[in-house]
Specification:
Largest sheet: 5 strands, parallel
Strand order of the largest sheet: 2-3-1-4-7
Low-confidence stretches: none
CATH architecture: 3-Layer(aba) Sandwich
CATH topology: Rossmann fold
CATH superfamily: P-loop containing nucleotide triphosphate hydrolases
Number of strands: 7
Number of domains: 1
Order of helices and strands: EHEHHHEHEHEEHHEH
Shape: globular
Number of helices: 9
Bound molecules: zinc ion
Mean pLDDT: 93
Helix content: 40-55%
Structural class: alpha/beta
Length: about 210
């Protein structure tokens, strides 16, 4: 099985992607993590990515493609999470996988309404050490993480203005993937608990097993 996961910010796709990868023994390739890893390894590509990120820009399509292709060339079974983010990336991926003779099984689209995304993402405070997430007003910035004691911070990505920008970007660039993948698409309702969504996903994915 080779699949891509996409959905609006706050849809919980990262969490579901992790579970599905374990269940089907797929390499979970999260673009965010891969790019951070590349920077950490200080490779040539990593140095380029660091420059882009430090200048405050989004990593360009060519660079993200290069990073992703270097990984999917190694693995036969994988789940891509956070990629593709736009039509150009989706087309590039298909072209690359066709050359490699490893076509995608399909795409999984986890959907939630904008209001739900804003409700889920706003007021989040994150522990930079263990990843614990607390919500305001139950927690306040600077409160200690209940797991490891590190002070909780509001990530730039979780500020209300930034959430709104991310949603606009999503509608303009990522949502059109629904049409692009229409003939190999599973649409999963992302409303409910992690368990409920996981169950829907498991039932839907059985067609590609
Ligand atoms: Zn912590």
């Amino acid at each position: 099985m080779r699949i891509v996961f996409f959905g609006p910010p706050g849809s919980g796709k990262g969490t579901q992607a992790e579970r599905i990868s374990k269940r089907y023994n797929l390499h979970h390739l999260s673009t965010g993590l891969l790019l951070r890893e590349e920077i950490h390894n200080n490779s040539e590509l990593g140095k380029r990515i660091r420059k882009i990120v430090e200048s405050g820009h989004l990593v360009d399509d060519e660079t993200v493609n290069e990073e992703v292709f270097s990984k999917v060339s190694v693995y036969d079974r994988f789940l891509l999470d956070g990629y593709p983010r736009n039509l150009f990336q989706a087309e590039s991926l298909d072209a690359y996988l066709e050359e490699e003779k490893k076509p995608l099984s399909g795409a999984v689209f986890i959907t939630i309404p904008d209001a739900e995304a804003i409700g889920r993402l706003s007021g989040r405070l994150t522990c930079s050490k263990c990843g614990f997430i607390g919500k305001q007003p139950l927690y306040r910035p600077g409160d200690k993480c209940i797991r490891c004691g590190t002070p909780l911070i509001e990530r730039n990505d979780d500020r209300t203005e930034v959430i709104e920008q991310r949603l606009v970007h999503y509608h303009n660039f990522t949502k059109p993937l629904e049409k692009y993948y229409h003939d190999r698409l599973l649409i999963i309702d992302g409303i409910g608990t992690v368990e409920q969504v996981a169950l829907r996903l498991k039932e839907a994915l059985s067609i590609w097993e």
